[in-house]
Design a protein that fits this description.
289 residues; alpha/beta; Nucleotidyltransferase, domain 5; 11 helices; IS3 family transposase; Integrase_cat-core; nucleic acid binding
């Protein structure tokens, strides 16, 4: 309580008398607390507070207390508990600005369908065992629309390839696949998607067959079958897209490229032992070697 009063008075300029009255304590008690010798915990909190503020501002307020905890522990070599970070962020009035938006689905008549080979088994022991893919819509300017196609690896949770385009068509999806296959020609993963028209085309099936990959598809109206891919798009939109207005396609494209570079190389994930996807990929490779 005293720390909350101190921060609100120090950073927000709130009147000390009003804060003490609201908290139901005497001003003299506050000053007694302020002038006492701070404990080790309190000294550590004073160290953490400016670091939390800086980290919060670094990514425009997208970090919640869990991501904040991982970031501070990794970059400052702390061993701080997430509950402490939660309390301090609450005192500082810092809350993740991220929000989520529901996805609209487009019905299509498939040429080819495949079984749900993946069957919601989202675990993988290494890179290139299981790939997920999808397309999501984003807007820019007054009425412009762009479509992001991406492939996610379940081993290290990295984005293997992505393409932003003006149209949600076969060319967009095929190019995303071609980039992934060209960069990782030896990978022969289970390749999972929803039943969008691009993935159910004969041409796409031929691409998978020629690459030696096994096709897998979500069941009708079961978006959870492609859950990690949906989760990535939700994270990208909440941490980047919803936070800004993009006046042009070029602005949106630059933001997407920057975010995916950040996601792959600098965004720590608790499920990856607090590593980034690229760090975790090297970690997996070192275990095999």
């Amino acid at each position: 309580m005293y720390l909350t009063i101190h921060e609100l008075h120090d950073t927000k300029g709130y009147a000390l008398t009003k804060l003490c009255n609201f908290a139901g304590i005497e001003r003299s008690s506050y000053y007694k607390w302020l002038n006492r010798e701070a404990s080790g915990n309190e000294q550590f909190n004073k160290t953490l507070i400016p670091l939390i503020r800086d980290a919060y501002e670094e990514r425009g307020g997208i970090l919640g207390y869990r991501q904040m905890t991982i970031k501070l522990n990794r970059e400052q070599e702390f061993h701080v508990n997430h509950k402490r970070i939660y309390r301090l962020m609450k005192i500082l009035g810092l809350k993740s600005v991220c929000r989520r938006k529901r996805k609209n689905y487009i019905k299509s008549t498939p040429e080819i369908t495949a079984k749900n080979v993946l069957s919601r088994n989202f675990n993988a022991n290494g890179f290139g065992e299981k790939w997920l893919t999808d397309v999501t819509e984003m807007k820019y300017g007054i009425s412009g629309k762009a479509y992001l196609s991406a492939i996610l690896d379940l081993g290290d949770k990295s984005i293997v390839s992505f393409v932003l385009g003006h149209s949600n068509n076969n060319a967009l999806v095929f190019r995303t696949f071609d980039i992934a296959h060209e960069q990782h020609p030896d990978a022969k993963p289970i390749f999972h998607s929803d039943r969008g028209f691009q993935y159910t085309s004969k041409m796409f099936k031929n691409k998978l067959d020629n690459a030696g990959m096994t096709q897998s598809m979500s069941r009708v109206s079961r978006c959870i079958d492609n859950g990690p891919m949906e989760a990535f798009f939700g994270t990208l939109k909440s941490e980047m897209y919803y936070l800004s207005k993009f006046n042009s396609y070029e602005e949106l494209e630059a933001a997407v490229i920057e975010y995916i570079e950040y996601y792959n190389n600098r965004r720590y994930q608790k499920r990856l032992e607090c590593m980034t996807p690229m760090e975790y990929r090297q970690h997996l490779l070192s275990k095999v070697a």
